[in-house]
Amino acid sequence: MKLSRRALGMGMLAATLLGAPAGVLGQESTPEASGSLLAGMGYPELRIQVNDEGFELPEQIEAGRTLIVFENVGQESRHSLLLALPEEVDRERALADLGPEAQEPPAWFLDATFPGFPGETLPGETSVAIVDLAAGTHLVIDNFTAVLEVVGTDATPEASQDPAAGATVGLYEYGFEISASITPGRQVWEVTNDGQEPHELLLAKASGPVTADQVVELLMNEGEDDGATPVDGGPPAVDIEPVGGVGWLSSGLTAWTEVDLSPGTYIALCFVFDPETGMPHVAMGMVDVFTVGDAGTPAA
Ligand SMILES: [Cu+2]
Hints:
By secondary structure, the protein is mainly β. It has one domain (13-157, 164-298). 7% of the residues lie in helices and 35% in strands. The protein contains three helices and 18 strands. The chain has helices at 13-18, 91-97, 212-220; strands at residues 45-50, 55-56, 60-62, 64-72, 81-84, 126-133, 136-141, 145-151, 167-172, 175-178, 181-182, 185-193, 199-206, 240-249, 254-261, 264-269, 287-292, 297-298. The strands form four sheets. An eight-stranded mixed sheet has the order 2-1-4-6-15-12-9-10, with no helix packed on it. The longest helix has 9 residues, at 212-220. The termini are far apart. Bound molecules: copper (II) ion (CU). Copper (II) ion binds at residues 174, 199, 270, 272, 281, 286.
């Protein structure tokens, strides 16, 4: 399809930063749903399987707080998102606007509601997120699109107890408010959009020390350089791989995800695009580098 992920601000981090097939990067495992903290909480499950050509998912589910289990059985890394159509846009129009002829995101795109989604997921990995789904027609979007009807009598998801979180992250224009102390190990993260625009928390682990400026430089140079070799005077060669997070999330909404962090350097990024310039938020400063130490280290 012509509507590139870049246009949607959805460039695959693994490919973007490394110019390498993502499949070779998945050395560090992310939690399988079976042993996950979130899976044990008893929320209804929405299982979505993705390969390089499309999604496999139920046609319809009930509204409410839902555990999304996102399994990538393809060869490419997947950075997908979930949206609820704005009232004035019906399913036929949405599919036409996002179809093979589309060159850029339709004008209504940022009027959609983004309930959250598991973050970028490498081949062979499964990511999870707990999100609140309201009744209405939803789309799961990547290089391809699938429709999910969410049905229920209430337009607003029923309030239920929040998962206990080991860390919280606030999203705003343009940055991240990350818990002062991040401890290693498997834990639930609560992510809230405190801003006005949609945002996401794309988490990545770096193989060594890197600054936020260097990350931006890597990303911005990607158009001219295939990423296989550092540009002259450019940032140091550092491997960066996605380790989860929460995809597109609308203003005022909260979603939960599960991370399993070993000590090291991590990067938080947002690739939501600016409607006027098309620039990803990461280019507007929405990037944060923080470290996780053995005993928990204050975030940078
Ligand atoms: Cu953002």
